[in-house]
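Exercise 7.
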Amino acid sequence: MVAGAPRPLPVDPAAAGQHDGAIAGRLPLPKARHALEFTCRYRASFVEGIECRVQVLVGVATEHPDVRDEAITSLLTMLAWDDTATSTAVEQLARNLFTSHPDLVRHRLVDLVAQDNHAAASLLAMITDPADDSQQQHAAAMAAATHLGKPLTNTATRIDQGTGAPRQAILAASLPADERRDLAAEQLRRAASVYERGSNRPEYLEAARILAHDLDQVDSLFDTAMTFATDPSPCRGDLIVNVGNHPLSTF
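Solution. The predicted structure, written as tokens, is:
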């Protein structure tokens, strides 16, 4: 830096991403196509770069109908990578776009939900009306039910954080009462699993609440849930990863 030259101002990554998205939306169509091609050519490896790319794609898709399908396809491709930084960026920054154009994303989101993509489940739940009786809604509900009932993967040597259960429960809310009652009971069994972390257990309890909130004859489910608050047994999952301060770590 030249002596006496002013120091550059610090850049807020979130503001920079929004700035890039706004600029991309104002570009003439030929330059918007070029920005789209450049954004899709390379895969960013750091959070700020990922967020900027998502913002550019959202900006182009929002303002340029001629390339909207291509930009949304690129966003869904990024979502399919299912790594935390990319999924979170697409889930948070493309919400309004997906809400505005649900027919362009619903089918692909259903496919991603069937592959246990948690971010896709959240986005699909956002654009899904539980009263909708369409084939796609039924497919999404069945995929969510499969996820909510699949065997747990946490063991003494592998303990993951985060379950996606509440998102899946929202999608499964259109299933018949008996199926939802069984799924709610399964979430309580998951919450009681030996190797579940305390931070995962509230997600299972919330999923059970979503599935059973309008059902009759759920006293047994409520009683089971209440035992979690009085059981002093330590949470082995938290002990293994040396985390013991979560309110639900000792039930």
